[in-house]
Design goal:
With about 270 residues, the protein is of the alpha+beta class. About 20% of the residues lie in helices and about 30% in strands. It has helices at about 45-50, 95-100, 120-125, 220-230, 250-265, and strands at about 5, 10-15, 40, 55-60, 60-65, 75-80, 80-85, 110, 130-135, 150, 155-160, 160-165, 175-180, 190, 195, 205, 205-210, 215, 235, 245.
Length: about 270
């Protein structure tokens, strides 16, 4: 039986004879069902219509994705302790498997939030590795598997030099990843859209729902800033190919927290 994939968000559901009646992820205020209605595909069909493209940002950081559904790209982050796939995309073809295995495979997968869970179990099976998700978002796992490892608390280090940081915000378990050795030892952060790089790539912003324009309260964004404060990093990778803050990223995040809080609390003259 096929495992159907939602064409709006890219989430893969368990094997079934027919497509689900609705996508749990899309029928919630942070996402949406397109005006054309709920649509479904399969990994086999996707392999015929979409191909992953790749972009090397710096030694050890490669973006990959095919622009399907939400359109995010994943990141292959190579560290001294092993390779991490940060976030996930629905599209997994033979060329992608061959390329990543040629670079040493994957030691683990970590995902920022449920919108990017996509076909995570297919990836875990292909590379025989665990998936690290925050337990606060457990209810949004629509396709459980033994590969999924839930972590709790504010931080989790799958190996030395790599830390998953619970920021919350967009989702209660909203996570970013810090690599201390990234960016030539200056540190890097992979943020998904928990810290969403803006179009001008000069700021980040914070939302409960991006497509439905639901902001976060000031106290939540202050907590995000506090969660990031202990970590040193110079580069920040957002969730699209072009959303990168290439230098001075920690100062950008701190200034963005201040700007956001001032705006929603009415101190910027808006």
């Amino acid at each position: 039986m096929p495992s159907f994939i939602c064409t709006a968000c890219g989430t893969q559901y368990p094997e079934s004879a027919s497509a689900p009646a609705q996508c749990k992820i899309c029928n919630e205020e942070r996402q949406y069902v397109p005006a054309s209605g709920q649509g479904w595909t399969t990994l086999e069909k996707l392999s015929k219509s979409h191909r992953n493209s790749f972009q090397e940002y710096e030694p050890g950081v490669i973006g990959l994705g095919a622009g399907f559904a939400i359109g995010q790209r994943a990141l292959l982050v190579r560290t001294a302790g092993g390779n991490m796939l940060w976030d996930c995309v629905s599209t997994l073809d033979a060329a992608t498997v061959t390329l990543i295995k040629g670079l040493g495979g994957l030691k683990a997968i970590a995902i920022s939030h449920p919108h990017f869970y996509t076909s995570m179990n297919e990836w875990a099976h292909a590379f025989d590795c665990p998936i690290h998700l925050h337990a606060a978002d457990k209810e949004w796992i629509v396709n459980p598997s033994s590969s999924i490892k839930l972590w709790q608390g504010d931080t989790y280090s799958p190996w030395d030099g790599v830390t998953l940081i619970r920021c919350g915000g967009h989702f209660p378990g909203g996570t970013v990843m810090h690599s201390a050795g990234g960016a030539g030892g200056r540190g890097l952060v992979c943020s998904g859209d928990i810290l969403s790089v803006t179009t001008d790539r000069k700021w980040v912003t914070f939302m409960r729902s991006y497509p439905n324009f639901i902001p976060l309260p000031a106290d939540t964004v202050r907590r995000i800033g506090a969660a990031m404060q202990p970590f040193q990093y110079d580069v920040l990778y957002g969730h699209y190919f072009d959303r990168v803050i290439a230098t001075n990223a920690k100062a950008v995040v701190e200034a963005s927290v201040t700007r956001y809080v001032d705006a929603v609390e009415g101190r910027r003259g808006y």
